[in-house]
Design a protein that fits this description.
This protein has 348 residues and is of the alpha/beta class. The protein has helices spanning 31-40, 42-48, 87-104, 124-139, 160-195, 216-234, 240-251, 255-261, 266-274, 282-291, 296-305, 315-325, 331-340, and strands at 3-7, 17-21, 59-63, 71-75, 109-112, 145-150. The protein contains 13 helices and six strands. Residues 182-227 have low confidence and may be disordered.
Length: 348
């Protein structure tokens, strides 16, 4: 998928470029900055000494030396005061300028840390929102895979209210579903206990009602059922791929607008378009449903075409239902929430 949030050590990312949250001097420091310099070796520091530092909100590019990537892009994030001294604009500029350098260097894959969210004190939920918004805006016009790398889940936060709302929604639906399951299990156990009294003798069939034609009606009903099943099979009309392309035409959006909104790679979309029998993953189906802003029922229909369904026994499914039922079709926000609850992300 074009934008992914992952847990990893950024110094171990095998991408074209990693981004370093640097100090103005570019001469190393603590946190991510120190880890990148340590992993790269002395050559990185020597090259950085030739760059003359870097302004806040700007970026500069160097070699990667002992790192598994090709480039290191150094950007200087703002120190957070109160959010009213240009911090959001400067933080957004860090991502934008870094992506611009990556594009100029021919990079196809870039990994970012969550800039300014460490010792510079930027609130993590706000820092993440700016990162996602700025990167997704860039990706709407450019083909690139971008990672936001979180080293430790404890260092990752979405908005407290959003987290609490989703958690409550999961509790309301997930618990109810499992309560129903327990009731159903008790009911089935009750039936099994009654079956334990069965003595092996098959009871005689009751005599037919006066004037009836024994067996004729059941046979007719069986035939009707077979015909009905036959008809149902014949009525399987469009595949997932065909339904998706029809929905895109009906939406008035272009293919590119849809697969970018779905956080889907262009190459994958080409495969889906060219193969009417393509079998997608469940997150891919839902990603397209989100991009097309389908209702919950329409989403279920599209899932059915691919052989899937939504279930209240799955936290992933409940979180998807939470966002669709509230009319929030921002796939990047949805992915933030899915990541926070340790679920698979949407897109490929």
């Amino acid at each position: 998928m074009p934008l992914q949030i992952i847990r990893n050590d950024i110094t171990k990312m095998k991408v074209d470029a990693i981004v370093n949250a640097a100090k103005n001097s570019l001469l190393g420091g603590g946190g991510v900055d120190g880890a990148i310099h340590d992993a790269a070796g002395a050559g990185l520091l020597e090259e950085c000494k030739t760059l003359g530092g870097c302004e806040t909100g700007k970026a500069k590019i160097t070699g990667a030396y002992n790192l598994p990537c090709r480039h290191v892009i150094h950007t200087v994030g703002p120190i957070y005061r109160d959010g009213c001294h240009g911090e959001p604009k400067l933080l957004s500029s860090c991502y934008r300028e870094s992506l611009k350098l990556a594009k100029e260097a021919g990079c196809e894959t870039v990994a970012f840390p969550l800039i300014s969210s460490g010792v510079y004190g930027y609130p993590k939920a706000e820092a993440l929102r700016i990162a996602v918004d700025t990167i997704s805006e860039f990706l709407s016009d450019n083909d690139m895979t971008v990672y936001i790398v979180i080293f430790d889940r404890k260092a990752y936060q979405i908005g407290e209210k959003l987290f609490a709302d989703i958690e409550a929604f999961i509790d309301d639906n997930y618990v109810d579903s499992h309560s129903d399951d327990r009731y159903e299990r008790r009911r089935r156990m009750s039936l099994i206990r009654h079956d334990d009294d069965f003595d092996g003798n098959i009871p005689a069939c009751p005599p037919p009602m006066l004037g009836s034609a024994p067996m004729e009606k059941p046979v007719m009903m069986q035939k009707a059922a077979v015909v009905s099943l036959d008809d149902a099979v014949k009525q399987i009309d469009e595949s997932f791929s065909e339904m998706l392309l029809r929905k895109i035409d009906e939406s008035g959006l272009t293919d590119a607008q849809v697969y970018k909104k779905a956080n889907i790679d262009r190459k994958l979309f080409s495969k889906i378009r060219s193969d009417k029998n393509y079998k997608p993953s469940k997150p891919t189906v839902i990603a397209f449903s989100i991009a097309l802003e389908l209702s919950l029922e329409e989403t279920k229909d599209m899932l059915m075409k691919a052989g899937f369904a939504l279930s209240h026994s799955s936290k992933f499914d409940i979180i998807i239902e939470f966002f669709i039922s509230r009319g929030n079709y921002n796939i990047f926000e949805i992915n933030e929430a899915l990541f926070a609850f340790d679920q698979s992300l949407l897109g490929v």
